[in-house]
Amino acid sequence: MYRLIDTHAHLDELNNLGVMIEEARRAGVVAMIAVGSEQQSNTKTLEISRKHRRFVYPAIGLHPWQLTRLGTPDIEDDLRWIEDNLPSAVAVGEIGLDYDKRVVRGASKEIQKEVLGRLLETARRHAKPAIVHSRYAWKDALLLVQEAGVDKAVFHWFTGFSGVLKDIIAGGFHISATPAAEYHEEHRRAVKEAPLRRLLLETDCPVTYGRAVRYESRPADIVRSLQAVSCIKCGGQVEIAEQTTRNATELFSLGVAF
Ligand SMILES: [Zn+2]
Does residue 107 form part of some domain? Predict the structure, then answer.
């Protein structure tokens, strides 16, 4: 049986969480990193992790999409809350930049960069890893991580250019693979080019995946990420499960041997 870690799941957004966690355990999941998006989601994520201790490990953050609807006082409030509650979390996330024009229309690149810079600074001060969203903003996201002096970060669901990926790997950072590795060309290329020791698995559930058949993902779909990575890398599933689980355990300092 595999031992898998889903390193990026929005558990606060799932219905029937208990059932889904059981299903994930049966699929070989031994731990999950639950990511938060803003204060309410962060609070719920911490609650879920307390209820599923030693299985769900929480990350708290402020997702760039949230900046399109939050005013400056709310953003300041969220940043303070993250700072105060970070000792209860294993990482800062989900944070990042999103240069999709629909996002930039609501939250300028400048605002996104300023907020990300401050969150990364918090991560550095608390010596916590960062879980970074970097859609169409791969280079800027990496530059900010480097500028902040954060030494542990994962660029989740990475679909960026090979040149940026090279610098991510050279900087000692990680990327993670979602079930989109079954069909998404840029994501598949990144998974292929990243060394296995810098790769993590995730679902980003409840994201909807699929080309011909669309489905809403759940934590057990981490098996699809594993199978896709195994195909791309021409490697055994057991070996890939073991290495990615070891990578996640180390990156998030889980302090347990799975
Ligand atoms: Zn996410």
Answer: yes
Contact (Cβ atoms closer than 8 angstroms) between residue 142 and residue 167: yes
**Beta bridge mates, 91:** 59
Between the CA of 166 and the centroid of ligand 1 the distance, in Å, is 23
Q: How far is the CA of 6 from the centre of ligand 1 (A)?
A: 12
Residue 256 lies in a domain: no
Instruction: Report if residue 227 sits inside a domain.
Output: yes
CA of 210 to the centre of ligand 1 (A): 17
How far away, in angstroms, is 133 Cα from ligand 1 center?
7
Per-residue pLDDT of 61-120, as tens digits, reads 999 999 999 999 999 999 999 999 999 999 999 999 999 999 999 999 999 999 999 999
User: Which range marks the domain in which residue 58 is found?
Assistant: 4-251
Q: How many Å lie between the centroid of ligand 1 and the Cα of residue 95?
A: 9
Residue 187 lies in a domain: yes
DSSP 98: -
| Rounded Cα gap, residues 154 and 23, in angstroms | 26
Instruction: Name the domain count of the chain.
Output: 1
CATH of the domain at 115: 3.20.20.140
**Ligand 1: centre distance to CA 10 (Å):** 6
DSSP string, 147-193: HHT---EEEET----HHHHHHHHHTT-EEEE-GGGGT-HHHHHHHHH
